[in-house]
Amino acid sequence: MVGTSAPLVALTGISKHFGEGSTRVDALVDVTMAVQPGEIVGLIGPSGSGKSTLLNVIACILEPSRGRMDLDGDAVYDDRWLKGDLRRLRLEKIGFIFQFHNLLPFLNATDNVAMVRELAGAGSAEARARAIELLDYLGVGNRKAAMPSTISGGEAQRVAIARAIANRPRIILADEPTAALDSQRAGIVMDLLAQVASEQQAAIVVVSHDEKIFNRFHRILHLRDGRLDLITSNGTPQAAAAAPG
Description:
- With 245 residues, the protein is of the alpha/beta class.
- It has a domain at 9-100 and 169-242: P-loop containing nucleotide triphosphate hydrolases (Rossmann fold, 3-Layer(aba) Sandwich).
- It has six helices and eleven strands.
- The strands form two sheets. The chain has a seven-stranded mixed beta sheet with strand order 6-7-8-3-9-10-11. The protein has a four-stranded antiparallel beta sheet with strand order 2-1-4-5, covered by helices on one side.
- The longest helix has 18 residues, at 183-200.
- The two termini are 17 Å apart.
């Protein structure tokens, strides 16, 4: 269920360029959007449209050239923020899911998940308990001692989702999370994301070219040449300015 409170992700007039003068490239141009608690938003567009740049801006990896961004009620990149603050924000409030699970090959499933809790300051016992709880929740508790090389792609992606939500982030960013999966496994991943969005009231942004999951998004944001030029909600195109506030 999509919440009606203040958005967890709110961008206003966000622009990002690289280079200056004749070498300047405008990767994002005046992007305004918002994502509510419990909402799964798809971000689509051709290669080079700015999707990855936008995801990296929301992730506080790239600083925008202009505009305002609020994450979970905090204005990011104003004078109060230092790089250490941004690292802490990423660790505590943002979860990442990648196309390829990127599990550490020398850690078993439990330790891959527990590591994130430990980085956030949890003790080893609490971190492992949280990891096992999540692996059970996602249906891979029987693989908790398995190394990444011994589990299937679908299982590895579920371990990666457990890692992404280990710190109970309010915001989850997923970059092509189903591109390497067949239809059945892609459906399982989207079921899990929908469950997390609903139960934890997380805001989820998914970059994808995978048309078979487009019907799982509450809204689809279309990027072209760095501009947000269309929003599709329940199959109905809207003006880009209609992002919820």
